[in-house]
């Protein structure tokens, strides 16, 4: 498919990287010549210098022939305008825009993006989604990754298996013998940076990151079996009072009255501003890298330090420092993927990369067939997907073990009529089943084909 | 099943220009909507939604985009031969130059499968496809498809 991406920053570049690697025809537009140069030098994609909201720029970049526009520049207004121009003048079928400002996202103005309004099909709001991700991680401290599927019926959780993890060196087959009533499937293992699709003979090694799919009601038990049962979060220190920090603090106030929050914000003006928006949260003005200020925030008794400033280095160092001063856990926002390899040595328990969250959302719309949700893991090495099996799709009616396309794919759960089923090789997918599975990036196309309906489908 | 029962001579088109699949389908849907006095958006949305679930490119350069349309009382078809083949994400990966757009009543059941089967049979038939590609004009295109069954 032909995709036009406006904005070649972290997010735009990440989307272009993934989509072009999958063989899509990708064109980028950015006002900055250096970013355009970088794309032309490093990706199988074309890039032009220009303003993505300008009709002549869009036309030159091939808007007339493209299937999708993804507008992810730094400016909401440019993104909205680019999507609208692409739709109005060039009939681009799918329009996705990133919009950060909360006022545009207010339910009261929901009509703005509708067909009769600006006609934008998908609005991506990374701040809000990153904020939700932070809240999910805080609610499940033992997991470094936590997403839900099938309207909350199924969870996929990421766990690190430390030396004290009780199931280390146990073959997965034995795991189900030891805990026959534990409906959990290990769908992917990340070992020394590489993603492995595990088989029942494989075992989990110390230091592995495992992704486990399980019914929502079994999450706590799964965590304790993997040695990651942790007390709920009571005290949180947030570094950075930007949009995400404020969102998280506000929602914590709103949802979990028991959680006590302190925010450290470097700008005095901003600190005063957010203090006005918060009721019980304590706002401290100063640097999150100041030992004195961290002590003032009672970091030693904090369950979690959450570093959400817009500077990766500050976030990483703030987490490291806070842990040294006694914080139990750290959760770090990291925009650049360049730090992936060093992050573990800084004793960071869990990281959040806004780029992957946005890329996941975009992929959901690029995937064909009945793909309902996509969660990109392992720096884009694979995806946990939710798909619906429709009549005439090749996956229907055959035992999973008889589908050669599922090599390199692991099915974690099936939701049938509201009930969660843990599949084995003999399980047959039925029409209307929701299937939650993991696929390595090179197998995604096979999965798409399995869920693609045949010609006689209406 | 006679294709002429749901394809009128004026709906056989040659030399249709389209830059890509989505725009072609939107264009053909608009044309269908006009002759059926339906809402343009309603038709194109159904057609595009069906296409998202799996391409209707049946291979050999032919495609049969189709949908059920509420308010429609009998099957309706448009046959378009493109000036230039376009990417259709077809089952065999080949570009498509013969497109049969098919709209069916929302309530029809076994009957619509027969209509679809008749079109699919014709477009999977090598001599018929060849005759469609070599037809001189719209009348020749119509003759080639209606003599297929």
Structural commentary:
The complex is a heterodimer of chains A (458) and B (149). By secondary structure, chain A is an alpha/beta fold. Chain A has four domains: 2-124, Rossmann fold (3-Layer(aba) Sandwich), CATH 3.40.50.720; 130-225, Regulator of K+ conductance, C-terminal domain (Alpha-Beta Plaits, 2-Layer Sandwich); 235-352, NAD(P)-binding Rossmann-like Domain (Rossmann fold, 3-Layer(aba) Sandwich), CATH 3.40.50; 357-457, 2-Layer Sandwich (Alpha-Beta Plaits). Helices cover 30% and strands 25% of the residues of chain A. Chain A is built from 14 helices and 22 strands. Chain A has helices at 10-21, 33-42, 55-60, 76-90, 102-105, 126-139, 172-178, 219-225, 243-255, 268-277, 291-296, 312-324, 354-366, 444-450, and strands at residues 2-6, 25-30, 46-49, 68-71, 94-98, 122-124, 145-149, 154-160, 185-191, 194-196, 209-215, 235-239, 260-265, 282-285, 304-307, 329-333, 350-352, 371-377, 382-388, 409-416, 419-421, 434-440. In chain A, the strands form four sheets. A six-stranded parallel β-sheet of chain A has the order 3-2-1-4-5-6, with helices on both faces. In chain A, strands 14-13-12-15-16-17 form a six-stranded parallel β-sheet, with helices on both faces. In chain A, strands 7-8-11-9-10 form a five-stranded antiparallel β-sheet. In chain A, helix 5 (102-105) links the parallel strand 5 and strand 6 (122-124). Chain B is of the alpha/beta class. Chain B has a single domain (3-146), classed as Mannitol-specific EII, Chain A. Helices cover 42% and strands 23% of the residues of chain B. Chain B is built from five helices and six strands, in the order βααβββββααα. In chain B, strands 1, 2, 3, 4, 5 and 6 form a six-stranded mixed β-sheet that branches. In chain B, helix 1 crosses helix 2 (40-53) and helix 4 packs antiparallel against helix 5 (138-146). The relative contact order of chain B is 0.22. The mean pLDDT of chain B is 91. The chains are: A alpha/beta (458), B alpha/beta (149).
């Amino acid at each position: 498919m032909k995709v036009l991406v406006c904005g070649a920053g972290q997010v735009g570049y990440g989307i272009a990287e993934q989509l072009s690697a999958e063989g899509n025809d990708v064109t980028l537009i950015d006002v900055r010549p250096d970013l355009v140069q970088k794309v032309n030098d490093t990706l199988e994609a074309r890039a032009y210098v220009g303003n993505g909201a300008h009709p002549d720029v869009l036309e030159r970049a091939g808007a007339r022939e493209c299937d999708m526009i993804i507008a992810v520049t730094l400016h909401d207004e440019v993104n909205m305008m680019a999507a609208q121009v692409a739709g109005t003048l060039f009939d681009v079928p799918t329009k996705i825009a990133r919009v950060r400002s909360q006022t545009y996202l207010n339910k009261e103005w929901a009509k703005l993006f509708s067909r009769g309004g600006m006609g934008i099909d998908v609005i991506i709001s990374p701040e809000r989604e990153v904020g939700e991700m932070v809240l999910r991680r805080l609610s499940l401290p033992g997991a470094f990754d936590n997403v839900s599927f099938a309207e909350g019926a199924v969870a996929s959780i990421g766990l690190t298996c430390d030396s004290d993890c009780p199931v280390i060196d146990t073959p997965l087959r034995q795991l189900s013998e030891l805990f026959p009533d534990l409906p959990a499937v290990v769908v992917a293992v990340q070992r020394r940076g590489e993603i492995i699709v595990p088989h029942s003979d494989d075992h989990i090694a110390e230091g592995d990151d495992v992704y486990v799919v399980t019914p929502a009601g079994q999450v706590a038990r799964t965590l304790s079996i993997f040695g990651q049962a942790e007390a709920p979060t009571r005290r949180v220190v947030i570094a950075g009072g930007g949009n995400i920090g404020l969102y998280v603090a506000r929602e914590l106030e709103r949802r979990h009255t028991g959680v006590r929050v302190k925010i450290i914000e470097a700008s005095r003006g901003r600190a005063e501003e957010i203090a006005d928006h918060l009721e019980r949260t304590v706002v401290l003005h100063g640097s999150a890298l100041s030992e004195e200020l961290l002590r003032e925030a009672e970091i030693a008794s904090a369950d979690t330090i959450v570093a959400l400033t817009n500077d990766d280095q500050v976030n990483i160092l703030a987490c490291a420092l806070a842990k040294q001063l006694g914080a139990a856990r750290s959760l770090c926002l990291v925009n650049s993927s360049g730090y992936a390899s060093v992050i573990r040595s800084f004793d960071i328990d869990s990281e959040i990369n806004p780029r992957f969250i946005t890329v996941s959302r975009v992929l959901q719309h690029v995937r064909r067939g009945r793909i309902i949700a996509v969660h990109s893991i392992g720096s884009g090495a694979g995806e946990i997907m939710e798909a619906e099996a429709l009549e005439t799709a090749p996956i229907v009616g055959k035992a999973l073990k008889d589908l050669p396309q599922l090599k390199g794919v692991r099915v974690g759960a099936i939701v049938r009529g509201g009930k969660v089923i843990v599949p084995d090789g003999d399980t047959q997918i039925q029409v209307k089943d929701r299937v939650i599975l993991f696929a390595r990036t090179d197998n995604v196309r096979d999965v798409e084909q399995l869920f693609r309906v045949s010609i006689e489908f209406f | 099943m006679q294709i002429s029962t749901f394809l009128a001579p004026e709906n056989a088109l040659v030399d249709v220009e389209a830059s890509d699949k989505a725009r072609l389908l939107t264009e053909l849907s608009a044309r269908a909507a006009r002759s059926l006095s339906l809402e343009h958006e309603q038709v194109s949305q159904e057609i595009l939604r069906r296409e998202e679930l799996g391409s209707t490119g049946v291979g050999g350069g032919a495609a049969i985009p189709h949908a059920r349309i509420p308010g429609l009382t009998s099957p309706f078809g448009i046959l378009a031969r493109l000036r230039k083949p376009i990417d259709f994400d077809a089952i065999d990966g080949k570009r498509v130059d013969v497109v049969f757009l098919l709209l069916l009543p929302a309530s029809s059941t076994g009957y619509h499968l027969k209509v679809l089967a008749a079109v699919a049979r014709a477009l999977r038939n090598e001599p018929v496809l060849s005759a469609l590609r070599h037809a001189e004009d719209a009348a020749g295109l119509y003759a080639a498809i209606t003599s297929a069954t």
